[in-house]
Amino acid sequence: MQKTWLILLLAAVLVSCHKDNSTDIKKQFITNDHTVNVTFDEQHPGHVIPDTFEGLSFENGVFGQDINYLNENNSVLIQLMKNIGPGIIRMGGGTSDLITWTGSPRSGATQPDAITTSDIDHLAAFSNATGWPVIFGLNLADNDQDVAADEATYVSHSLGSSLYAFQSGNEPDAYAPYNHLRNPTYSFGDFLSEWRGYQAAVQKAVPGASFAGPDVAFNTSWITSFTDNEGFEVKLQDGHYYETGPATSAGITYQSILGHSIKLAELIRSFKTSTSKTQPPFRVTECNNVYGGGKVGVSDVFASAIWALDAMWTLADNGCQGINFHTGVGLHYSPVIRENGVFVAKPEYYAMLAFKYGSANGRSIPTTIDNSLFCSAHACLVDGKYSVTLVNKSLDKSFDFNIIPGKIISSINVTRLTAPAIDAKTGVTFGGAAVKADGTFGAVTSENSTINKTSFIVTVPAGSAAVVVAQ
User: Fold this and answer.
1) At residue 55, what are phi and psi to the nearest 5 degrees?
2) What is the DSSP string of 139-206?
3) DSSP run (H or E) holding 78
4) How many domains does the chain have?
5) How far is CA 238 from CA 213, 257, 283, 293, in A?
6) Cys-Cys crosslink for 186: which of 176, 257, 373, 377, Cβ 3.0 to 4.6 Å?
7) Among 361, 385, 408, where does a domain finish?
């Protein structure tokens, strides 16, 4: 009888302990209008985020616009790129299909719509100074394989090991319907035939040359089809992403870029659905918020930084290997722009700083939040630490992010991406620091707290973001 009583008592204690633990776990979740619960799935880790994830995209026509832009003497731009690097330079854009390869040095008689040996040599020196390799776009619109092979030969010789890959054509899916560079019946099959001709001609002239493609604008089905056909032949599959446009549309405001992106979801689906046994990595080789050069009051305000940070993380979470923000002369969405003869960092640039700080070559972790309408959360593991980027896209409401890692956290470090207002063009900081006139970026200020709990709350004000490192 005494033995039976002891067994029943022990069972009651065990049930009581189990009930208490379950209650403690449930108490970690908070339900109210201002709280967002964030949980992780460490059992199914994602991809390692490459240290070359971030990049910049430039028009081939920039050389004719400003010979001092991509130049080894442009110390401020070089420093700005080093701050967010290592990365990858992409040369191409619409002008790559309109520009002529001269095969000779630039002189006073050189036309603006030409690319010369001098330009390539400056690009090579610039690439070497930044440490960023180059994806180089060849003119496919002319469909002249001999000229392309000659240009590729010089590019390869000048850049050497700094040449990452060649591209053939810019946004070929727009050749017929928008750019009128082909007849109206131009199809993916037509493009593939031309692309294969270029690849064969270039590889004959430059044995072992690497290629990327198809570099499309909007027809994401071309990405899947290209990978199905050429996945074993290319180093990289790629496409472009602009959230909205054109810039002339009166209805576009900064709120237009802060909602859920159907375009981005379609792009991600396209590089995941190929049936090819060989799946090369995918990169967004040209990207920004409003196509057509960007829109004042949208592309150049702090809302663009919030958009860019969230877009980079969404792509990284889905295994994308990188993104190149389109940059250059007269483009309102440029992360870096020349103003009054001086290169300055714009709001998007600070998003790139925050992404570098928050990703740090970590392995992404699937993350779930219970209010995705105005917020997002992205996490990765870096050297045993959690790095969590929290984005509040609401214009008027602060949110408490209740982060539940599922294990005891001893301390946290919070570094914030902020501006005076969501539509501010200046005053943007990351960790309270701003980029200096010489392009350098100083030490950031972070908030440090001792936690020793299995969950913790970080408040993120409306229209801002924070990077949280927890250990």
Assistant:
1) -155, 175
2) --TT--HHHHHHHHHHHHHHHGGGEEEEEE-S-GGGTTTTS-SS-TT--HHHHHHHHHHHHHHHHHHS
3) helix 75-84
4) 2
5) 5, 22, 5, 21
6) 176
7) 361
Domain that holds residue 389: 28-46+364-470
37-79 residue pLDDT tens: 999 998 899 999 999 999 999 999 999 999 999 999 999 999 9
CATH number at residue 394: 2.60.40.1180
**What pLDDT is recorded for position 422?**
97
Q: Which residues, other chains included, contact 250 with Cβ-Cβ below 8 Å and sequence gap of 6+? A: none
**Which tokens belong to 275?**
């049936």
Same domain, 188 and 253: yes
Using CA atoms, how far apart are residues 193 and 204, in angstroms rounded to an integer?
Answer: 17
At 16 the pLDDT is 36
* 3-class SS of residue 6: helix
pLDDT confidence bin for 218, thresholds 50/70/90: very high
% the chain with pLDDT above 70 = 94
Characterise 284 by phi-psi region: left (phi > 0), alpha (psi -120 to 50), beta (else).
Answer: beta
CATH number reported for the structural domain that contains residue 97 in this entry: 3.20.20.80
Instruction: Give the residue among 416, 406, 409 at the shortest CA–CA distance from 460.
Output: 416
Q: Which of 25, 32, 22, 29 is nearest to 402 (CA)?
A: 29
Region 282-303 average pLDDT: 98
pTM reported for the whole predicted model: 0.92
In terms of domains, do 42 and 60 share one?
A: no
Residue 15 lies in a domain: no
Q: Do residue 242 and residue 221 come from a single domain?
A: yes
Q: N- to C-terminal Cα distance for the chain?
A: 51
CA dihedral (157, 147, 325, 226) in degrees, to 10, reads: -110
User: Do residues 334 and 201 both lie within one domain?
Assistant: yes
The three-class DSSP label of residue 130 is helix
Residues 168, 290 within the same domain: yes
Domain termination residue (choose one: 361, 389, 422): 361
